[in-house]
Amino acid sequence: MNTLAGKKIILGITGSIAAYKAAFFVRLLIKSGATVKVVMTQSATAFISPLTLSTLAKNPVITGIADGDEWSNHVELGLWADAMIIAPATANTLAKMANGICDNILNAVYLSARCPVFIAPGMDLDMWTHPSTQGNIQKVLSYGNKLIEPESGELASGLVGKGRMAEPENLLKELIDFFRKEQSLTGKTVLITAGPTFEAIDPVRFIGNYSSGKMGKALAEKVVARGGQVKLILGPTKLKIDHPAIEIIPVTSALEMFEAAKKHFAQADVAIMAAAVADFRPKHTAKEKIKKKKGIEEMTIELVKNPDIAATLGQLKKKDQVLIGFALETENPVENATRKLTKKGFDFIVLNSLKDKGAGFNHDTNKITLVFEGNKTQEFQLKSKLDVADDILDAIENI
Ligand code: CTP
Q1: For residue range 326-350, what is the model confidence (pLDDT) as tens digits?
Q2: Got the DSSP string for 160-216?
Q3: Which residues line ligand 1 at a C-beta cut-off of 6 Å?
Q4: Stretch (H or E) spanning 262
Q5: Dihedral of the CA atoms 29, 30, 32, 38 (nearest 10)?
């Protein structure tokens, strides 16, 4: 799908010089088949005329200045739209969005919107880099809004740097990409293993690892955002996951995870092995708590190998199923990942970095390299785990 045919879009415009680009953007939206309603703040009207925009949008522009009745429509408008995009978004509007301030029609529509909201900031370099703006960006992202990063270049102030609103063509591309992805996994079931496994030593002790399950959660959320169903086989974590399209199958040990994975794999179109599975478990689990014994300074716990869940699914895998693995390597990462790829029958493997700041266990960000057969690699920047999940799903859809 390369259009916005049938999509209802609210374009919110605030008072930044980049507002002049709104005319081009409205034209692109209309050309790609969208129905557009424009909402402007009062200061935006100083940069571009509502008449220009209403002519291009073929709809009256809502400014909330002249007509008090428009205010009563903000809820209706918020429910009407398939997406809202605020472009340009000033530092002032971002601050209001971050704090739920609602002193104009645009912020009222934003607060009422149940649809996804895209924010395309446009401001001067220093305003963009100011800690308060960056803090507000983090806040609005944590509410589930989507950021279309400003671009770098010459700014209206004469400064050169980041802050320039993304070009209208790029804004359009983001919207089209979003709606394309929204349906791309409809009818598909994705099995995900995530989190650590705990291997019991006795009733109160176990061998475990630091995996938080956050990457698996991000993957699950992104699969359902694309219309898919998830079976999430989840080791012990503190995560809260509650979505009707995500079935959680809680497990504790590698053996439990192994049984659950074998049981559910046949119904899966895709399986993603994101769990940090313990390679070994205690040979015997003591029935009672193991007590210290006087005079004994050392103790040995005998371990036996756990089954390899991924490799087993790799053997069961049918032609139309996709199997993705994860690897965490500290030496010769690509070579080692490639060996695992072949050994376990993965379509590709997600190589995790432990060396990069902000990547790995318990972080909300991750830096990955995808490794395909024949040593082919695709490297990505440090990103939020949600964005990493999108990159992984894009690669799965391109297989
Ligand atoms: N994996 C699995 N079952 C296991 C061990 C690993 O399903 N018993 C999966 C992981 O979820 C991951 C991939 O296999 O997707 C690679 O795991 P990793 O622990 O890095 O590989 P190992 O084969 O265990 O190699 P090593 O520990 O020697 O690095």
Answers
A1: 998 888 899 999 999 999 999 999 9
A2: EEEEEPPPHHHHHHHHHHHHHHHHTTTT-EEEEEESB--EEEETTEEE-----SHHH
A3: 193, 254, 273, 275, 277, 279, 306, 308-310, 325-328, 340, 344
A4: helix 254-265
A5: 30
Does residue 73 carry a catalytic annotation? no
User: Tokens representing 217?
Assistant: 């959660």
**pLDDT, greater one: 156 or 189:** 189
Best of 280, 309, 332 to mutate for ligand 1, by most ligand atoms within 8 A of CB? 309
Q: In this model, does residue 138 exceed pLDDT 60?
A: yes
Q: Which domains does the chain have, with CATH numbers?
A: 8-181 (3.40.50.1950), 189-397 (3.40.50.10300)
Predicted local confidence at residue 1, as pLDDT: 52
Query: What pLDDT does residue 76 have?
Result: 83
pLDDT single digits (tens) 262-275: 999 999 999 999 99
| Cross-strand pairs, 384 | 365
* Of 304, 207, 186, the residue nearest 252 (C-alpha): 207
CA 321 to chain centre: 23
Residue among 209, 306, 332, 366 flagged as catalytic: 209
Average pLDDT over residues 186-210: 97
Rounded Cα distance, 196 and 316, in Å: 23
Within 8 A by CB and 6+ apart from 18, the residues are: 87, 88, 122, 164, 165
How much distance in Å is there from the Cα of 308 to the middle of ligand 1? 7
